[in-house]
Amino acid sequence: xxxGFLGRLRDRLGKTRTALVDNVRRVLGAGIRLDDAVWEExxxxxxxxxxxxxxxxxxxxxxxxxxxxxxxxxxxxxxAVLKEELTLLLSPGDHSLHLHTESGPHVTLxxxxxxxxKTTTAGKIAAKLQRDGRKVLLGAADTFRAAxxxxxxxxxxxxxxxxxxxxEGADPASVAFDVTDAGISRGxxxxxxxxxxxxxxxxxxxxxxxxxxxxxxxxxPDAPHEVLLVLDATTGQNGLQQARVFTEALNVTGIVLxxxxxxxxxxxxxxxxxxxxxxxxxxxxxxxxxDLAPFNAAEFVExxxx
Amino acid sequence: xxxxxxxxxxxxxxNLTGQGRLTEKNMKDGLQQIRVALLEAxxxxxxxxxxxxxVQEKAEGLEVLKAVNPGHMVVKIVHDELIALMGAEHRxxxxxxxxxxxxxxxxxxxxxxxxxxxxxxxxxxKKGHHPLLVGADVYRPAAIKQLEVVAGQAGAQFFSLGEHAxxxxxxxxxxxxxxxxxxxxxxxxxxxxxxxxxxxxAEVKRIAAQVKPHEILFVAxxxxxxxxxxxxxxxxxxxxxxxxxxxxxxxxxxxxAALSLIEVTGCPIKFVGTGEKLDALEPFHPxxxxxxxxxxxxxxxxxxxxxxxxxxxxxxxxxxxxxxxxWDLEDFLEQMQQVKKMGSMGDLLKKIPGxxxxxxxxxxxxxxxxxxxxxxxxxxxxxxLERRKPKILNASRRxxxxxxxxxxxxxxxxxxxxxxxxxxxxxxxxxxxxxxKGLMRKMRMPSSPF
Lengths: 306, 450
Description:
Distance between the termini of chain B: 24 Å
Mean pLDDT of chain A: 89
Strand order of the largest sheet of chain B: 3-2-4-1-5-6-7-8
Largest sheet of chain B: 8 strands, mixed
Largest interface: A-B, 51 and 49 residues
Strand content of chain A: 5-15%
Number of strands of chain B: 8
Number of strands of chain A: 8
CATH class of the largest domain in chain B: Alpha Beta
Radius of gyration of chain B: 26 Å
Structural class of chain A: alpha/beta
Structural class of chain B: alpha/beta
Radius of gyration of chain A: 21 Å
Order of helices and strands of chain B: HHHHEHEHEHEHEHEHEEHHHHHHHHHHH
Number of helices of chain A: 11
Shape of chain A: elongated
Helix content of chain B: 55-70%
Helix content of chain A: 40-55%
Strand content of chain B: 5-15%
Distance between the termini of chain A: 18 Å
CATH superfamily of the largest domain in chain B: P-loop containing nucleotide triphosphate hydrolases
Oligomer: heterodimer
């Protein structure tokens, strides 16, 4: 990919990343013998990338065995093998978005905790689809946060698509119903429903989300076709729990990992993919309309070390 | 939020306790468990390393004392170290002399700055201040509108030059606006920005240089992982931060970022966000937080919350009524509503020491909450006379109450029976020599919503 996100990120954040790369090279470069210091440095790099102490311990234990069996004795080879392993770990499942249906509107439901970037993601997807010549309808089912509907409205104007919204405090399920209904009657190709941010340990809010899904299914039984869980890359180990609980409530089809344009690596998705098998579908790398990219396991792993 | 960390440390020390003596080996295991627990809690790798080292040094030094219970000894060291790491006792917001106090909120995107602005405004209003909320986020669509709505909810003044103006101008102008409106506090809501975005960091530096805030609060959410140190460090390098606000502590994240943030910025955590509503902002108490980490609960802040909500005068009246047995369903309803004001039952229970371990699951909690609501609906469906004299509730009245509250006659009967039981019990307890203490013991009846 010529315009891969790594390249774009490097342009934007050159110095921060380079310093880290040098650090890793220094400790793990060619000719360096594999002693405890090397393993510890590797551990620190992975843990500081938010892979989580359990996942890192498992991976490094495997690597130790691997290194013995394959007689790996220098840092460079070790890193290469490790990258390969991580890429393999992140590869299973369907990482591409499927935004088309045979007939009737395709419905995408967007969920996640507060502040993860749901509305921005909804806006970006809508803009992309609109440019591809699709008829898109946005649904503002975040009726709780002040001015959330206004925020999505501005995105709808930027993207040039229609939006269905209700009053603040309205039942979000009724918005979901209306937008599904309107999508059918207006012959929309895609419906994108933005929901309110909610902490996954609030049972009633998670039930509300289930209700939204049920209500959509009343009009389109096989919808929502894509259920995207938006995760903030700066999130630590709680990300796994978020993914677990949201998946229990909804048929989550994939993860959107946002804010990868900072210094956070989003390494908790490794555990999510490993333990829950939920594939990452998109990554968010900025606030602009185009700053949403498909997920690429090899690039992502490269960035973990970069 | 620190619950899981508590459990982990608990088990680490349970292994130490009962071994009689602290040997080098069993401490190593315990320390390793502390290390893993802290890493799982998202405390930064380097911070953990330093912390565990300090605990080890302290513990080894004390070994000479031949403590009877090595587990307790280590608990105390970890506890003290956690407090030391989390800084001094709660420090309130700075206040300017003879002019408006300027508070600036900064941070990454999606941390809850705008919501926190509203919460701070409401809190200051309750203390008799007149805050002005200033919308300086010209980047996120409708961010200024959101702040305006939030200001309205908090009953605070609002000012912004809009999203086409330079945010620096908005913040500068806000000061004269505050003077004009007679506001004594100016709260600046800046845009969320990445610490590696030079242009955006330069902008926030310009704002700070122009308005010279008395407080610059770094807002970060409790779910933040290892990267907390990097972003906080760069914000700290760019701006003279004075404090941290930790948001979304009502989630189930272990919140280790709190330790990292304090370690990196050297600033105290001044407040924690505990919910989506505007009154969900509490002062941060390091010692209490350490207590919580070590499983000692957070009873002090529960008591504070209770004091805020429960009218002292009403409490005295209530006691008198119970003594005279004139306590009726009207009082019961009032009591129930006061408890509700203190937050959800789950939140309350979490603050009681030891409760975090035996707390019912989310479903059980939701059931209890539902039961409470049902009881309230039943009482609300009675006439005032019925509430004062439940005896007049004959079959036909009960039928009406059941229909009115959407429950069944059986449920109405049960509520009345429970109320009767409670009344009798409270009467005996209040008359007894032990007073309210005994009351607490006897009040633990499983069928009661309390």
